[in-house]
Amino acid sequence: MAGAGMPEPKPKAAPAGGASLTLSYAEAKRRKSANRRARWRDVVEELNTELWPQVSPSFRLHQGETIFTIGSCFARNIEANLAALGCKVPMQDFRLPPEEFDGTPNAAMNRFHPPAFRQCLEWAAGIYDRDGEVAWADCEPLAFDLGQDRWFDMDLAPALAVPRLRFVERRQHIYEIFSSAFRADCVMMTPGIIEAWRDLETGLYTAGPPYERAMLRTPERWVLEVLSYQQCLEDMLAAIDVVRARNPRTKVLITTSPVPMGTTFTGRDVTIANAHSKAVLRAVCDAAVLERDGIDYFPSYEMATLSNPALVWKADRVHVSQGFIGKIVGHMLDHYIEGVDEASAGYQRARALLADGDPASAEAAARRALNAKPDHLDARLVLGIALIGQHRYAEAQQELKTAAIADADRCDVRVQLARALAGRGKVDRAVAMLEATMVRPSFTVFDMLAADGVLRRASPDEAARLAALAVEIFPLHQEVHARLAEALLRGGRKPDAIAALRRMAGLSHPPAQFLVELARLLLETGEVGEAAAHVRAALVQDPRNKDALKLRDELQSPAHA
């Protein structure tokens, strides 16, 4: 019988075709009687707030250990919180220049299903066992030739095509990230969907459906597969075995991503297709736990899907809020991660509270972290942001000035200091600081988006100048183009704003709201045909977009017929 606080002994997997778990009558009765959460009525009240299922770890992790993460966007969000706790997270080290990718750098590394996990780890293992040097022969099966020495990486979330030499260089970086799994203390796997695209010419899975025009000229080359339970289980176990063949003592923590599929290609209702996908992967996770020692399931899927939706999801009902993800990792901390110092734990909690829209509580948590470790720069940064969120700009300026003195190279600190200055009415100083920060190599698009408070308080001409500079630095990011258009409109420069939004519309998958804004401006200038085209494009992106539907109806009225 397990002692207090100890996990139940893990049952062994049953033979193929048999039950996944077999218990004697006495053991089954004992487990029911000892379980305070055995009945649905025991947990039903939690469904109105936040559900935190019982967790019984079979292993522990420690601050400073390396956790290799593989999965979809949900895994990417978990990573930042693990890093805040002082864990080493190799995936956080992946970088792509802004002229190649428009999102969070490591979002290009998203992997959505077990065959993709297996494929990328086997690819890395082959190079790891050889010499650790990526050659063109390793890249060629993954490279689609667009001509004129432009190669598109079919195993990478949509990034721009690059010359062959850069392709190999980028793949070397990808190898270094994935091969860290062979040295990690823990591998965390988060599968999300079972719809997978395969290249029939190479037999390899692609990061998503083909969308490059050159790829669409050979539609017979690409097929959609709805993966079976058996294939997902085999590939999940094979991926684990690839790691453990080189790193026998690594622990494995798996969970099903709660993020629903955005689109299904099967013709089924997306709610049904998503339920099927999650059911298969959730069953695979449990089966993998039974098949191998040193594997645990962590119930982040249940935490997100069974808690009160208003407390979990962003407005799009697709992505889990940063605040709730922070709480999930806090639950993980309570059960799995030992030895985390008070400062790191306080900082991680402060980040979660700030993301949850509670700057006052975030301030308190950040101050606790700083009491434990006064030189914790990230905690001081969060404290500054929390003070800005409460419009306490003078206090924020003081905290952020201290942080900037401690590390003058931190662009995120300098941007927040500029926000505090702008909040105090010192707009000229804020603009000068932001402009000087933007030209630094470490300046990111997320730093730019965080600077909205400075742009809004700056004059229209200054805001447009800064936004135009941002477009030069981040040419692929739609929201930066939108910031420029907003500043131009504020200055009464409608033709220039239209030109900025037209450039944005020419990028890959422009957001519906920006297309609607462009269409509205075009309609005001009498360009009805182009306006209608952008409305149609917006409805392709978001068929229920109310503004797009309203504008479509207006375009179909007799006044514009």
What key phrases describe this protein's structure?
561 residues, alpha/beta, Rossmann fold, two-stranded parallel sheet, 24 helices, 52% helix, 7% strand, globular
Structure description:
Among the domains are: 61-339, SGNH hydrolase (Rossmann fold), CATH 3.40.50.1110; 341-390, no CATH class. The chain is built from 24 helices and ten strands. The chain has helices spanning 25-34, 73-84, 114-130, 136-139, 164-179, 213-216, 229-246, 270-291, 300-306, 322-336, 342-355, 359-372, 377-389, 393-406, 411-423, 427-438, 445-450, 452-457, 460-473, 478-490, 494-505, 512-524, 528-541, 546-555, and strands at residues 61-62, 67-71, 143-145, 151-153, 186-190, 195-199, 222-226, 251-254, 295-297, 337-338. It has a four-stranded parallel beta sheet, with helices on both faces.
Task: Map the helices and strands.
Layout (H helix, E strand, L loop, with lengths): L24 H10 L26 E2 L4 E5 L1 H12 L29 H17 L5 H4 L3 E3 L5 E3 L10 H16 L6 E5 L4 E5 L13 H4 L5 E5 L2 H18 L4 E4 L15 H22 L3 E3 L2 H7 L15 H15 E2 L3 H14 L3 H14 L4 H13 L3 H14 L4 H13 L3 H12 L6 H6 L1 H6 L2 H14 L4 H13 L3 H12 L6 H13 L3 H14 L4 H10 L6
Parallel strand pairs: 1-10, 2-5, 5-8, 8-9
Antiparallel strand pairs: 3-4, 6-7
Helix pairs in contact: 2-10, 3-5, 3-7, 7-8, 10-11, 11-12, 11-13, 12-13, 13-14, 13-15, 14-15, 15-16, 16-19, 19-20, 20-21, 21-22, 22-23, 22-24, 23-24
Main sheet specs: 4 strands, parallel
CATH topology annotation of one domain: Rossmann fold
Coarse structural class: alpha/beta
- CATH architecture of one domain, please? 3-Layer(aba) Sandwich
Give the C-level CATH assignment of one domain: Alpha Beta
The radius of gyration computed from the alpha-carbon positions, rounded to a whole number of angstroms, is: 25 Å
Strand count: 10
Shape: globular
- pLDDT < 50 runs, ≥5 residues: 1-6
CATH superfamily assignment of one domain?
A: SGNH hydrolase
Beta-strand content bin: 5-15%
Number of helices: 24
Could you give the order of strands across the largest sheet? 2-5-8-9
Average pLDDT confidence is 89
Distance between the termini: 78 Å
Q: Percent range for helical residues?
A: 40-55%
